[in-house]
């Protein structure tokens, strides 16, 4: 078992958690010398990673750090590719739904060493199955990228900080709507193959969203 897998968790409130992670991001050094800090809030939709990422972004802005929010939901592949194996294929959900190439090209590449900082906040609308046509935006040096979404770890993204919002299998099944429970095998596979509790820099357990606990 790795040191990360052994880490004890302790109770925390959402405001204290937000402040602690914002402080860490505001003071973080990047791992590759990039002038931008790149962070991810990883979690199943039932864990609401986007909601907490919004709170974290606001805390960073109050610290004077420019922030750009990007959601994985804006970088899904077109339906013709996502649904090639049917509308409810958990392996396709795990392997094919996220357009990792587009995220590299439009987000992580421009925020790497020598990058321009000019990124695309979203690319594809999965509801209309059309390009969003959003304009490019520039994140100034010293800014923070906050990416949120499910199944983000283990993809080689150059993250300076990754936080995993963890639900136990029972809590995940309980909090996932009936029409989305076909995705549960994908998250079981993610736990087994990627081991996000070991991969992430910090883990927040959210089985009871009123009483989170984290590894610090």
Précis, in short:
This protein is an alpha/beta fold and about 220 residues long. Helix content is about 35%, strand content about 20%.
Query: Any idea how many domains?
Result: 1
Helix/strand-derived category reads alpha/beta
Helix content: 25-40%
Based on CA atoms alone, the radius of gyration comes out at 17 Å
Average the pLDDT over all residues and give the rounded result: 95
* Secondary-structure element string: HEHEHEHHHEEEEEEHHHEE
Task: Give the CATH class.
Answer: Alpha Beta
Query: How big a fraction of the residues is strand?
Result: 15-25%
Amino-to-carboxy terminus distance: 19 Å
CATH architecture: 3-Layer(aba) Sandwich
What is CATH's topology name? Rossmann fold
How many runs of DSSP E, i.e. beta strands?
A: 11
Q: Could you give me the name of the CATH homologous superfamily?
A: P-loop containing nucleotide triphosphate hydrolases
What does this structure look like?
- The longest helix has 14 residues.
- The chain is 33% helix and 18% strand.
- The radius of gyration is 17 Å and the shape is globular.
- A hairpin with a 4-residue loop joins strand 5 and strand 6.
- Helix 2 packs across helix 3.
- It has one domain: Rossmann fold (3-Layer(aba) Sandwich), CATH 3.40.50.
- The two termini are 19 Å apart.
- By secondary structure, the chain is α/β, with parallel strands linked by helices.
């Amino acid at each position: 078992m790795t040191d990360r897998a052994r880490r004890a968790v302790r109770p925390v409130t959402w405001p204290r958690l937000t402040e602690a992670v914002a402080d860490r991001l505001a003071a973080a050094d990047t791992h590759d010398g990039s002038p931008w800090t790149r962070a991810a809030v990883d979690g199943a939709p039932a864990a609401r990673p986007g909601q907490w990422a919004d709170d974290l972004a606001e805390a960073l802005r109050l610290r004077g750090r420019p922030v750009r929010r990007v959601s994985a939901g804006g970088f899904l592949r077109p339906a013709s590719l996502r649904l090639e194996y049917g509308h409810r294929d958990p392996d396709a959900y795990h392997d094919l739904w996220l357009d990792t190439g587009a995220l590299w090209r439009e987000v992580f590449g421009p925020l790497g060493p020598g990058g321009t900082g000019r990124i695309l906040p979203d690319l594809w609308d999965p509801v209309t199955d059309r390009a969003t046509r959003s304009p490019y935006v520039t994140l100034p040096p010293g800014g923070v990228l906050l990416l949120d979404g499910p199944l983000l770890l283990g993809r080689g993204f150059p993250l300076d900080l990754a936080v995993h919002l963890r639900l136990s299998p029972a809590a995940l099944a309980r909090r996932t709507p009936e029409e989305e429970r076909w995705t549960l095998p994908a998250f079981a596979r993610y736990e087994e193959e990627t081991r996000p509790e070991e991969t992430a820099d910090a883990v927040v357990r959210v089985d009871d969203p009123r009483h989170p606990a984290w590894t610090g």
